[in-house]
User: What shape does this take?
Amino acid sequence: MSSSLPVAARKRLGRLETVFLVLLLLDIALYFVPSMAVLGALCTVAVLILGAIVLVRLVRRNLRQLLWRLRNRLIVSYLFIAVVPIVLVMLMVGMAGYVPKVRLRPSFCRI
Assistant: This one.
């Protein structure tokens, strides 16, 4: 369903990612205010938990695309490792059969 959306719509941040960024900015701001150490510690814990959740969501979202790219690369490498050598060997066998035929043909035509 997300693949039918335009690229710009897929790159927008969700609610969870937006909350994570706001909390991260708040945590950075609270780092410089020593009187708010308890609130800063709570904000740091929340940032760590939300960061882990956002990371899992990003990995799950992009895993299909990464596997698709890997699949395409594996298919191309299979073509170069398996199909191309077979075609080259068949071409060499065909040329090896053609060369004696061409060389021996004039000897049969002499009378």
